[in-house]
Amino acid sequence: MQRNTFLKLTTVLATGLLLNAPAHAQTTTINVAAIADFAGPYASVMPQMQGGRLAVIEWWNKEVGSKLNVQIAVKTFDTRYDVAQTASLWPGIKAELKPVLVLGLGGPDAAALQQRLPDDKVPMLMGTAAYGFGWKPDQWVLNLRPTYPHEAAGFLEWFRATKLQDKRPVKVAIITSEATPAYADMAKGLQSYTKANPDKATFVEAIWTEVQPTDLTLPVRRLVNAGTDVIVIQTNTAQAVAAKRALQALGKNVPIMLSLHNGVVGSSKALGDPNGFADDFEVGAIADATEDDTAARKFYRMLQEKHGLKSGWNAMTIMGLGQSIVAVRAIEATLKAKGAGKVTGEAVRETLLASQFTSNDLMGVLPGMDFSNDAPFPTGTSKVNIATMKDGKVVRAAGDVTVPMVNKW
C-alpha cells in the first residue's frame, strides 16, 4: 500500500515537473541556394569565395540565429559558369530547396535567371559588379556593386589624374569574350563611357577571344603598337593570364586593370608566379585585400579563429564575405519584422529594397547597402578601392575613389 502510494506520488510529481518545464521552441531552418563553379573558368579561385560564404553563414547561425531559434542552411550547386547549365538546374533547385535567396556567381546566372526569378519570387544576390542588361527597374537579381564599367570608369579617371603627367585622355583597351552576355556587356559599357567622355578616355580596341584563350600575343601586340595605357580585363583569370603571358613574350609592361574575381593574387597564382601581376591593379566597390587593419580584416580574422575559415585574405574571399553578410542581414531583418514563418523570397526582397544597411551592419566588408526599384545595385554614392601588387602582396593604391556617372548603354 505504501509502495503504491509512493509510485502515485512520484508520477504526480514527475507530471507536474513536465507540465511546468519550459517549452523549447522548435528551430526553423531557412534555405539558401548557392551557385558555384568548381569545374569551369573559376575553378581555381572558387574555393576561396565559397569559404567566405560558408564562414559567414556559420558565424550568423551560432551568434545570431541560435538566439532567434533559426538556422540558415546553404546548399551549393556547381553550374560550371554556364548559362544553359544554370537554366537547366534551376527548376530542380527551386523545387528541392524552396530557397528564400540565391547566392549567384556571375553573368551566366543573371542571364539564365533574370526573367525567371520575378515569377518564382526568389531574389538573387551577386557579389560581382552589375551588368548593363540588368539595369532596369523592378529587378530580382541584385548586385552589391555598381556595374563593371562604373568601376572601370572610376579607375580610369584616377589613373589619368595620377599616372599621366600631361593629363591627356587615357588610352584604354579591353579583352573580353562574346561567350557570355556579361562579358560582352563589359565592352559595351566601357565603349559607352569613353564615347561620352572623350576628354578623359579614348577607346583603342576590344579584343574578343575565347573564355579560356591559349595565346593572345598577336592581338596584344596591336594594343601595344597603338600606345595603349591600360588594358581592362574584368572577365576571368584565364584571360588575365593569357594577356600577361603575351606582354611578357613581347617584352612590354602595359598595366592591366582587373576586377576582384580575377584579382592580382588569384591571377598570379594561376600564372604560376606569386608576384606575376606586380604593378597591375584590381578594382572594386568593396573592401580591398590589403594588410591594413580594417574592420573587414578584423571580421575575417575572427572567422578564422572561431569559425574555421580557411580561405586566404584575398578579393575572392572578400566577395564571398560580402555576399553572405548582406544575405544574412536581410534574412535577419525579415525575421525580426515578420517572424520565422513568413520569411519568403518575396519578403526578403522587400527587406533588401526597404533597408539601408550601414558599414557596421556589414562588418566593414561593404561601405553600406541600399537598393531601390530603379537600379539593381546600390543607389548611394559608390566608391571604389584600387589595389596593386608589390613583392607578392596586395597594397592599396587608392581608397574611396569616386565613381563617375555612367549613362545607360
UniProtKB/TrEMBL annotation:
Keywords per UniProt: Signal
Source superkingdom: Bacteria
Domain Leucine-binding protein: start-end pairs: 29-364
TM ranges: none
Pfam families for this protein: Peripla_BP_6
Keyword Signal: yes
First and last residue of the signal peptide: 1-25
Family: Belongs to the leucine-binding protein family.
Name by which UniProt lists this protein: Leucine-binding protein domain-containing protein
Organism: Hydrogenophaga pseudoflava (Pseudomonas carboxydoflava)
